[in-house]
């Protein structure tokens, strides 16, 4: 059996997070030369930037899902329910 070396958890600095968040606010995906340039600018590896964006997208989706659930609960619906519209064709 070969032992795989576990990668240490990256601790991002506040300025790095600020830059990453500002990029994420513009676009949720970053690839190729843009990711390479950002990694170089922040003194990170491309893999660290890639994983940060993956994790941030997960957080973003969870936040959006929670916001949607709150919106639906405000109007008395669960996420499974869809508003029903009744049309009276006879009137």
From TrEMBL:
Subcellular location per the Swiss-Prot or TrEMBL entry: Nucleus
Concerning PROSITE patterns, the annotation shows: HOMEOBOX_1 (PS00027), HOMEOBOX_2 (PS50071)
Q: Which residues bind DNA?
A: 5-64
Q: Where are the transmembrane segments?
A: none
| A GO term for molecular function | DNA-binding transcription factor activity, RNA polymerase II-specific
Task: Show where the Homeobox domain sits.
Answer: 3-63
The alphabetical list of record keywords is: DNA-binding, Homeobox, Nucleus
InterPro entries per record: EMX-VAX-Noto_Homeobox_TFs, HD, HD_metazoa, Homeobox_CS, Homeodomain-like_sf
Q: Which GO terms describe its cellular component?
A: nucleus
The segments labelled Disordered in the record are 64-91
Descriptive protein name: Homeobox domain-containing protein
Q: Source species, please? A: Tigriopus californicus
Classification from the root reads: Eukaryota, Metazoa, Ecdysozoa, Arthropoda, Crustacea
């Amino acid at each position: 059996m070969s032992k795989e070396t576990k990668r240490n958890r990256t601790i991002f600095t506040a300025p790095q997070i600020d830059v990453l968040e500002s990029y994420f606010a513009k676009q949720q995906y970053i690839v190729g030369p843009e990711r390479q340039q950002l990694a170089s600018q922040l003194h990170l590896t491309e893999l660290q930037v890639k994983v940060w964006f993956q994790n941030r997208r997960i957080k973003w989706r969870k936040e959006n899902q929670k916001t949607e659930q709150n919106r639906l609960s405000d109007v008395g619906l669960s996420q499974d329910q869809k508003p029903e519209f009744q049309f009276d064709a006879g009137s």
